[in-house]
Amino acid sequence: MDTIRLENKGKTKMIAHRGLSGIELENSLAAFVAAGNRDYYGVETDVHVTKDGKYVIFHDDRSGRVAEKDIALEEVEFSQIRSLRLQERGTEGGYTDMQKPLSLSEYLRVIRRYEKVAVVELKNPMKKESISEITDICAKEYDLNRIVFISFTYENLQTLREILPDQHAQFLTGAISDELIAKLKKDRFGLDILYTSLNEEWVKKLHANGIEVNCWTCDDPEAAKNLIAWGVDMITSNILQ
Q: pTM value?
């Protein structure tokens, strides 16, 4: 098994979505190591706040899609999430003790080891205290200049701005508009958008307003060629390299 390699990426940087999740189980140690051992610019992940104020790496609000038990991640303590048996990639309904949900610190240590950019999604609306603690963990474990925070919750990024006025951040969305561009420009956020919502004119307009363009989640080589030709800054993918 291997990635699908793009021959000419120009200046576009590739981001491994939840690690190299096209090959390994998403957001797992194996996925992060697999991405680290390739020439990805960055490695994206997702962070939830647990009931006891810990920070766990997991995409969904509930664990059932990739774990043996289905629990609501933000309604239980970290130790309960840690005890989950996760799917073993390549098996039918198999679960393994070899892969455990990771903490934010553990993810960052892997990314630091491989010297990648950490792309950290703040999942769901978060309190200022939680975002402050997340940024403290990031500063302790890695270099904040090597971290991009992303979120579908605009208020999370505004809170981040209060804590770290110059921190690299991108707003996640599925749609674009002139009103959004004006808002992003004012708040100095980049854009991380569903790739099918983009065209060349939107990319030109975003760049003309000084807005960085990332896009998710493109696994189609032909579509990626168009995005690269339009000059997007980053492509987030499960399998393209």
A: 0.97
